[in-house]
Fold each of these.
Amino acid sequence: MLNNEPARAFYGPQQCLAANENEAIDVLLVTDSLFRSNDIAERQKYVQLVEDVRSYGGTVHIFSSLHVSGEKLGLLSGVAALLRFPMPELEDLTVDSDDSDSD
C-alpha cells in the first residue's frame, strides 16, 4: 500500500491533526508519553485526537515509551497515522510548527 500511495502515511502533530480534520485517519499510532506531558493543553490535544479517530471508526494503537517500538515512534514526534485515502497536501506541512506563523 505505502509503496504505491506514500501520501497515505504521515507522522507529526500537524499532519495528523490536519488528517483528523478530514476524518482521514484509519490507524493512529501514538506513544503513551504524549499523555504524560506537563503541558495540559498538549495532553488534551492528543486525548481529543484519539477520541475523534475512534468516533469515526479508526483504530488507535498506543505504544509504551518503554518498549523499543514506542521509543522509535517517539523519535518520529510520537504520533503517526495511516490514512483511509491519500492526502498529498499534507506533504507540504512542516514537522516543525515554528514555520506556520511566518507571514
Amino acid sequence: MLRLLSSYGNMFSSRATSLSSAYRLASEFGTFGGNFLPRSPAAGSYLLSTVNPYPRRSVFSLWGGSKATEWSRAVSEAEKIVGYSTSFLSLRCLLSDELSNVAMQMRKLVGTGHPLMKTARRLFYDDPHVLQTRGLLVLLISKAAGPTPNNSESTDGMTSGIYQSQRTLAEIAEMLHTACLIHKGLVNIKTEPLNGDALKDMEFGNKMAILSGDFLLANVSSGLATLNNTHVVEIISSALGDLMKAEFTRLRDDECNSIQPRDGATVEDWELQTFYSSGSLMAKSCCAALILADHPKRLQDAAFEFGKQIGYAHRLHQEIQQLVTDNDNGNDLTAASLPAILYTQEHHCINRQCELLAQEPISSKQVLNILKSDKEVLEKAKKMCSDYGQSAFSALDLFPKSEAKNALKKIVKAVTTF
C-alpha cells in the first residue's frame, strides 16, 4: 500500500512538473524554520495581487470570532511551544514549481467571480492564524503526550519534543484540508445560466481547482507513504472518506447545498455532518500522531475524543458568531446549522419561519434574519458550545501537565467564549 501511494504521488508530481513554465514563482521564496517566506517585496506583492486584488477587509477567521485578540494570543503562544510558526506550513507544496504556473494562470480568474479566488484569498491573505490551526493542534497534542521510550523512531530528528513523523503528519492534515477546500470551489456549470465568456471562465476555474486540489492530494499520498505506518495510512484515508461522506447526508441536497429536511433534523444529524466535514480529520489526525509515537490505546482514544469535541465546538462557534456580532453576512449560517435546527425544534415547525427553513434554496442572510431575534435559541446554542468545550477539557485529563496542555486549553477556551 505504501509503495502504491508513493508511486501515485511521484507520477502526479511528474505530470504536474511538465506544466511549469519559465515563470517560477516558487524560486522567489526562501525557507525559514520550515516555512516559505518572500525573499523580495516583489515576490510577496505578486502573490498577494494574484489572490487578493481587492482591499483588505475585516473577516471571520476559520477559528476566530468575537474574541479575535484572545484567539490570536492563544495561537501565537502555542506556536512558540511547538518550535516555530505554523502559519504557512503547507505552503511548501502551494508554492512549489509544480504549482507556479497555476498561480500565474489564476490571474485570469480575477473578476470572474469563480469561488477558487475566494478560497485563495482565505488561504493566503485573510488572517495570519487562519491556515494552520489543524496542524498546530496535532503538534500540540503530540508535545502534550511527549516521547515514549519504546518508540522505534530516532530522537535525533525531534524538535521541541515532537517527532519528525508527527510534524509530517501535521503537514499532511493541512494539505488534505486545503485540497478539499479547493475542490469545494468547483462550480456546477449545468445548474448555472452561463454562456460565452462567463462559461469559459467557469470551466477554466474548475480546471485550475481540480489540478491544484489533486496535486495536494498526491502530496498527501506521498507524505503518508514516508511515515511507513499502514495503520496511520488507514486512519487518514478514512478521514478523507469522511470528508466525501459529508456531501451525502440528510443535511445536503442533490447539489450538495445545505438543507434542513422537511421532516426535521436533530442535533445528532448536525453532529454527524460536522464530524464528517471537519471533526473527523482533526480527531483522526490527533489519534494518528500518538500512534506514530507508540502511545497506549487509552491516550490515543483521548486524543481522538479531544479532536472530535473541539471540532464540534469550533463549528458551532462559527455559526453563533453570526448571531452575536454586527456582521450581517451570515456566511456560516445555513438551514442545516445547529441554531436553525434548534429553532425548528423549539417552534415545532408551526410558523412561517420554520416553513422557510425547510424550503430550498434559502440564503444565509434569510437564515440570519430568522434566527437573530430568538434569544432563547441563541443561549441554548451557547450552552451546547460550552458543553462541547468541557468535553474537550475532559479528554485532556489523561495528559500530564505541560505548557502544551495549557495551550490546548486556551485554544478550547477561545472557541467557546463569546
